[in-house]
Amino acid sequence: MESEEAQPRRRQARGERRMSEILDAAAAVFAEQGYEKTTTNAIAAAAGISPGSLYQFFRSKEAVAQALADRFTTQMRDAHGEAFTPADLAAMDLDDLIDRVVDPLVAFNIANPGFKALFARPDMPPGLATAAGPIQSALLGRVEAILAVRAPRLSAPERTRSARVLVQIFQAMTPVVVAAPEEEREAEVLELKKVLRGYLAPLDGWFPGPSGGMVIG
Known about the structure:
Strand order of the largest sheet: 1-2
Helix content: over 70%
Low-confidence stretches: 207-217
Mean pLDDT: 82
Radius of gyration: 21 Å
Number of helices: 9
């Protein structure tokens, strides 16, 4: 016979599982319909529950979006950790470096199609903007740190500007990669990497030579 202590734990686990299912459904609906057109009724239908059941967990669409943003934030931090794990950046081949950074970030976006529907909006609600801000700042800072190692002759403003361009290139091409049929996705990822390499190659290898000159390698 189940103990009295076990019953609340089972109910909590069941509630957490249902919340996760609702967020999975919401991510799919946001990705398909966009934030503005999405309704709680559509989210409930996608989750296979009634609107009343949805409101037991989330009081509004905004609350669903905020919970989803929190989940995305955690998962994106994990992806950043994998992409930017400390390594011998100075010695790493440029193509290997691009693979190391791009692959985990692309995988995150493919696994989370609703991410762009929430965070790529010009009229992002304040709560989502607050969640997205630190992610963007951290990404920019990590790219700048790579440039500081790979191209130390760049000034701080030049590093910031170049990092911003690289991030914008990635963000602009990511929806193309995510939307591509699975059999074409690898080719689209290669195109993304080709564009990034085309921008990085002229900067990469800006190391002081033995006599203080430039070594372009």
